[in-house]
Amino acid sequence: MSPQHPIAIVGGGPAGALAAALLADSGRHVLLFDEKLAWEKPCGGGLTHKALRQYPFLADAGRESNPVEHCELISPSGQRVRFHMQYPVAIFSRLALNGLLLERARRGGVDVRHERVTRIERASGDWQLVTPEHEYKASYLMLAAGARNPFRSQFLPPIPPGDLMVTAGYFIPGHRSLMQIQFLKGITGYIWVFPRLDHASAGIAAKMGEISAAELRRILEKWLEKNGFHFDGARFYSHILPSFRAQTFETLEVCGDGWAMIGDSAGLVDPITGEGLYYALRSAELCAGALLAGEPDRYRSLLRDEVLAELKLAARVSQRFYSGQIFGDSVLERMVSLTAQSASFRDLMSDLFAGIQGYRDLRARMYRILPSVMAEGLAGTLRWPWADSRFAADPFAES
Ligand SMILES: Cc1cc2nc3c(=O)[nH]c(=O)nc-3n(C[C@H](O)[C@H](O)[C@H](O)COP(=O)(O)OP(=O)(O)OC[C@H]3O[C@@H](n4cnc5c(N)ncnc54)[C@H](O)[C@@H]3O)c2cc1C
């Protein structure tokens, strides 16, 4: 790495903007490129308690987000349950969130460029980045260009359709305070309504190839109409979302000689929930930390041990979560009914939504609360699926 050239970061979303700020805070010269700067990127905008705890400056930006305490879950058959989330989800418009992170980077001394990078080349150990306006040299390259990362093919094979989700949604004006999640029959994904300060992001996601984009939009529109949302004139959005399979996480490369990928560029999204903001921020932090320590390749092992282990487990459980059976009913139906019937299960759901209940110790927690769930009037004849030979593979096992 030649120290006379800056570190270049392509993409000023949450991942790129945080990495840039952390590097600049430690005195590094950083060039951050974004073709749009702060923009309303298609997103729910929900930040969990885990993210707010890790990044207190986002919790302090309370006026920019809607702290939502109540969630309604709706099963595929239409059972509904509302529950209180002990730790509110802070729902940001992405215009506000990206603006806040970019401003923080700028104040820390990052050279923020409102330019689209169109070409990247390696030249005698350094990087050359080309935009319509200028050419730049850089000593290290961080790719934070999101799920549509146009430079991926220079470093890694393309993301296969089976590792992606398609999303569609509307930004619907008005203030609401209830977060809603509707699970659907035959779709690996869900409909969400995430209320922000002055509008809601209402959308739908499904595995790519499972259903056409037009059909997905039609299902969402029908649901919105049925549930009393007026979306005439509301702005439509659609985007892709990484949703990697376990084997993809196992072989994932996130850095190489003089480069690293962070956030959606690297595919760091929870394949069950679609949560990507926390992982964008955390991967930025791990990558910047490794670079500052003079050991850029350590990013690989830091990410593997902390982030990829969790995401890989989520990927393994995902299929069973969306289409498996438990206690003689679908997991989704059962989850909604248990949330309605058991306070202990509601606490578990609350912690899952806060991001403080990980997948790795979920099974142990379920065993622990089983007596309470039973005492709360359930499960006399219920058996956990991993006690049943039809579910011989324990969904939460590590290996
Ligand atoms: C519909 C939808 C709903 C979601 N809801 C949630 C949610 O509620 N909670 C959650 O945690 N996650 C959610 N996610 C995931 C979340 O949006 C992403 O994980 C997150 O935005 C990733 O951040 P990032 O910085 O890696 O990438 P991005 O936010 O995509 O940022 C990439 C940036 O790179 C810039 N860029 C790209 N190419 C170039 C180029 N050539 N030159 C210059 N700039 C470039 C873009 O302008 C963009 O600003 C959702 C995703 C979708 C699609």
Summarize the helices and strands and which ones pair or pack.
Layout: E1 7-10, H1 14-25, E2 30-33, E3 46-47, H2 49-54, H3 56-59, E4 65-74, E5 80-92, H4 94-107, E6 111-113, E7 119-123, E8 126-130, E9 135-138, E10 140-143, E11 164-173, E12 178-183, E13 190-195, E14 199-207, H5 213-226, E15 235-242, H6 246-250, E16 255-256, E17 259-261, H7 277-292, H8 298-323, E18 325-326, E19 329-330, H9 331-341, H10 343-354, H11 362-375
Parallel strand pairs: 1-2, 1-10, 2-6, 4-12, 10-17
Antiparallel strand pairs: 3-5, 4-5, 7-8, 8-9, 11-14, 11-15, 12-13, 13-14, 16-17, 18-19
The structure holds flavin-adenine dinucleotide.
Residues 10-16, 33-36, 41-46, 116-117, 144-146, 150, 167, 169, 194, 203, 239, 241, 263-265, 269, 274-278, 280 line the site of flavin-adenine dinucleotide.
